[in-house]
């Protein structure tokens, strides 16, 4: 076998291995019978990222690509990635990312292209069968601790959580907390990440949650953890329809403000852990309703956050080390099964 044939064979083997490893990514198990699958949608997802070298030297850079993950309600496969991936890595929270190496001259722009096949199952928990159980201590210990963005020792947040959402049932707690956060959300696009301490703002007559989906999720997770309810955030996209194109120009986002919502659907939402359901999605902004365990197939999960942080829903899709991310584009073509 000649060297060209060997290279092609190795690239094909790497691509097959990547698809297999992403397929084997860990998923939270839900006991059968407690969840009703409402819809199944198969997506072709095509992503494009433009990286630029704004330094005065040639750069050989490692670039991390967020991949659609495998969860209880999502199956993901890599179809192609160009330039090819060097390897797949798993971060502290179990997310699988692709790693590639690119070289760029000063001022040069590099295009990264990717294609995935993703099957999403929209679901609804059958709360009439069980109001949920409080998780065992080992789970509570891991998922209720303080982190950089979730200050569970903020006494104001703790007092608000107990007054708004204390309940005997974890599902009741989750629902009351969703209602509280949603009713106090003052929505505006935030290009950074405030964290729960700064997202909670005192105004005349009480408190508001100021920011976008990231701040709403951070405040929710902090308050849930303060109540002993294991919680984390999920990041990805929320589509308005099964077929949609979205884009983000990083050089203009600051001046666009809320207008970028017209062409971008990066999203973050909370999850709570409630046996026997497992991880339950709480997306308050999908339909602006405080539903717990009502999950549409218009979500695409690219990762979860428990201890590892990627900044915001704007920058987590492609993470260079030294190059600058200039442009992000996704096209979703979904077919309901």
UniProtKB/TrEMBL annotation:
<feature type="domain" description="Transglutaminase-like">
    <location>
        <begin position="205"/>
        <end position="286"/>
    </location>
</feature>
<dbReference type="InterPro" id="IPR002931">
    <property type="entry name" value="Transglutaminase-like"/>
</dbReference>
<protein>
    <submittedName>
        <fullName>Transglutaminase domain-containing protein</fullName>
    </submittedName>
</protein>
<dbReference type="Pfam" id="PF01841">
    <property type="entry name" value="Transglut_core"/>
</dbReference>
<dbReference type="InterPro" id="IPR038765">
    <property type="entry name" value="Papain-like_cys_pep_sf"/>
</dbReference>
């Amino acid at each position: 076998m000649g060297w060209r044939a060997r290279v092609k064979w190795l690239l094909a083997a790497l691509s097959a291995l990547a698809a297999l490893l992403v397929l084997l990514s860990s998923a939270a198990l839900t006991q059968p019978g407690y969840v009703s699958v409402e819809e199944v949608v198969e997506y072709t997802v095509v992503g494009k990222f433009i990286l630029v070298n704004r330094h005065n030297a040639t750069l050989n850079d490692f670039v991390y690509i967020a991949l659609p993950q495998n969860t209880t309600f999502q199956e993901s496969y890599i179809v192609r990635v160009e330039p090819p991936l060097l390897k797949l890595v798993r971060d502290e929270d179990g997310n699988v990312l692709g790693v590639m190496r690119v070289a760029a001259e000063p001022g040069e722009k590099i295009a990264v292209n990717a294609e995935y096949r993703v099957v999403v199952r929209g679901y609804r928990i059958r709360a009439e069968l069980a109001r949920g159980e409080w998780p065992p201590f080992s789970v509570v210990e891991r998922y209720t601790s303080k982190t950089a963005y979730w200050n569970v020792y903020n006494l104001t947040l703790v007092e608000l959580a107990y007054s708004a959402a204390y309940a005997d049932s974890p599902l009741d707690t989750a629902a009351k907390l969703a209602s509280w956060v949603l009713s106090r959300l003052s929505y505006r696009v935030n290009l950074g990440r405030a964290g729960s301490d700064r997202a909670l703002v005192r105004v005349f007559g009480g408190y508001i949650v100021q920011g976008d989906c990231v701040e709403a999720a951070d405040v929710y997770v902090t308050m849930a953890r303060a109540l002993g309810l294991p919680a984390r955030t999920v990041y990805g996209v929320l589509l308005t329809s099964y077929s949609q194109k979205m884009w983000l120009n990083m050089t203009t986002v600051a001046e666009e403000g809320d207008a970028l919502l017209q062409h971008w659907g990066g999203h973050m939402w909370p999850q709570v852990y409630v046996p026997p359901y497992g991880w339950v999605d709480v997306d308050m902004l999908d339909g602006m309703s405080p539903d717990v365990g009502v999950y549409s197939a218009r979500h695409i999960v690219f990762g979860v956050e428990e201890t590892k942080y990627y900044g915001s829903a704007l920058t987590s899709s492609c993470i260079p080390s030294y190059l600058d991310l200039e442009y992000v584009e996704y096209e979703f073509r979904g077919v309901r099964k």
